[in-house]
Write a structure and sequence with these properties.
Length: 414
């Protein structure tokens, strides 16, 4: 049987378990947050308390007028110890999926959004030769439970990100801190190598990439063995590389080949490819050009180019030949007026691609709410909604950008 692609455009928002749920004590990221030194600014703790308040999250999705919600199913919740399955965690995700459908929301499932069980990391993570078969078992148990009601399944979130970061996106002090963090975790766990999927040392990037590709191909077959008509693919981090000089062109194309080339082959046979775009890089003779005076920038100081979304989608579609789902797109900023402007400028060119018959299946904004952003903890803000963490209520409050997004969805006919 062939996958049944969505017959309507998916307008959604995305989250990830470790970033919103809180309390995932069996996860590798939780373990890494607790070593010294740690690359993580602070532990996630209760994050946004979504493990308890998931119904509030779904109500937000409905209130914004969206028809889909992308969330991750956390392996560390389901198999906190090797070979011991927590049925209550599967029950939780079962209720979430039903909660989506009750509200007219299509569930989009991510099977691995960076975090993995700590026991799996202690075995070397994705560098372990048996990792693909272990992950395939997880995919089968999840999809056997909820796959009949999902609209699509994403195996991995941004497995190309370590390569992108290895291409000069991290300062040396950050690389050194990641190494120290991994060394501290290995020592604390008392194993030969404790390895994560998003805290990576440079000399292992190629091996990790190979591990991700092997695991993805095995996972696709596992998903199809249980749900042969469920669309399955993965999501790539995509920076819209451009250039202003001939030497800049060489640099941009070399980066594209390094970061995306291996995945063009790896996703062949998939039903779609996810694109996650936040930035554009314009190269001159010396590399990426920094933000210019007067340009809008995000919280990391990178310049904002709304056209980067449509450019990235076009590039990845041509590279892979596959239908595209925008699984993440947004801007980190405390200035919600800037987010409003960015959304208004970014989405219309994507809509034009759809109208020009480019097979774009959906758009998911990152993120539904301000959440835990990995090494930056709670210091960057991507949310359409804020979360009252400081007073302990974890109440959600839609920002103006949520209304802007709602109006775009309501007024767009595809």
């Amino acid at each position: 049987m062939t996958a049944i692609l969505p017959d309507h455009f998916l307008w959604g928002a995305s989250t990830a378990g470790h970033q919103v749920d809180g309390g995932d004590t069996a996860a590798d990221t939780t373990f890494l947050e607790g070593v010294t030194p740690s690359v993580f600014k602070e532990p996630a703790g209760k994050a946004c308390n979504s493990w308890e308040r998931w119904e509030d999250d779904l109500d937000l999705v409905k209130k914004i007028g969206l028809n889909s919600y992308r969330f991750s199913v956390e392996w560390a919740r389901i198999e906190p110890e090797e070979g011991k399955i927590d049925q209550s965690a599967l029950d939780h995700y079962d209720r979430m999926v039903d909660g989506c459908l009750e509200r007219g929301i299509d569930p989009a499932i991510t099977l691995c959004h960076f975090t993995i069980p700590s026991w799996f990391a202690a075995k070397g993570g994705w560098l372990n030769h048996d990792a693909p078969s272990m992950f395939a078992d997880e995919c089968v148990r999840v999809l056997d439970r909820i796959g009949d009601r999902a609209v699509l399944a994403v195996t991995f979130n941004e497995p190309d990100l370590p390569r992108i970061l290895d291409n000069g996106s991290l300062p040396q002090e950050a690389v050194d801190l990641q190494r120290a963090c991994i060394d501290a975790a290995t020592k604390k766990a008392g194993v030969e190598r404790y390895r994560s999927g998003n805290v990576v040392i440079p000399e292992e990037v190629t091996q990790l990439e190979y591990g991700f590709i092997r695991a993805h191909r095995t996972a696709v077959q596992a998903v199809r063995s249980v749900c042969p008509t469920l669309p399955v693919g993965l999501s790539l981090a995509v920076i819209d590389e451009s250039y202003s000089t001939e030497r800049g062109k060489e640099l941009a194309l070399a980066k594209r080949e390094s970061c995306y080339g291996p995945w063009a082959a790896a996703v062949q046979g998939d039903d779609f490819v996810g694109v996650q775009n936040y930035e554009r890089e314009v190269f001159d003779d010396n590399g990426p050009i920094p933000a210019q005076p007067g340009e809008d920038v995000n919280e990391s100081g990178s310049p904002l180019h709304p056209e980067s979304l449509a450019n990235s989608v076009t590039y990845i579609h041509h590279l892979t030949g596959l239908p595209v789902v925008v699984t993440e797109h947004g801007v980190s900023t405390p200035d919600d007026d800037l987010r409003c402007r960015f959304i208004k400028a970014s989405i219309p060119p994507l809509v034009e691609l759809v109208r020009d018959n480019v097979p774009v299946l959906g758009y998911f904004h990152w993120s539904l709410m301000d959440n835990y952003e990995w090494i930056s903890a709670f210091d960057v803000h991507f949310g359409l909604c804020s979360v009252e963490r400081e007073n302990g209520t974890y109440d959600r409050k839609p920002k103006g950008s949520a209304a802007v997004y709602r109006d775009i969805v309501a007024s767009t006919v595809l």
